[in-house]
Amino acid sequence: MNDHFAVEDFKEPYMLFYINQTCPSTKDKTETEIYDCTRQFWHGVSRKKRETKPLPYPVALAVVGSVVERAYSVDEWVRAGTTPSTRTNLDRKNRWEFTGHLLNDHFLIGRFLTKGSKPLRANQCGHGYFGPLPKVNQR
Prior knowledge:
Layout: E1 4-6, E2 14-18, H1 31-39, E3 42-43, H2 47-51, E4 59-64, E5 67-79, E6 95-102, E7 112-115, E8 118-119, E9 127-130
Parallel strand pairs: 1-7, 2-4
Antiparallel strand pairs: 2-9, 3-6, 4-5, 5-6, 7-8
């Protein structure tokens, strides 16, 4: 198996969360801590992406250093701080978190992501959207 995967080749829509700063190493974290680092305190997740049903980006990928560490189903988006957590963040204004489940067997786990021919780099807001534009019903 080739462990490199180009985001241009995604066949499904994915939301990527770059957790380099909140979880630079998953080796010393519990599964709950990794999940919380991936799902919580995100700014700039639009209402359309949070509230459209079915969700346009139903899978979240936790990425550290261009490598997919975990994949999660996204069940719903709620205001940050709504659910129990291992993390604290006092700045919850306009921040969001998702609830979901670990997808242990997702084919992208362990893959090194590229964009063009270069390693995929984190962006300023900490998350990004890749794959084909989702076809969703409007509310």
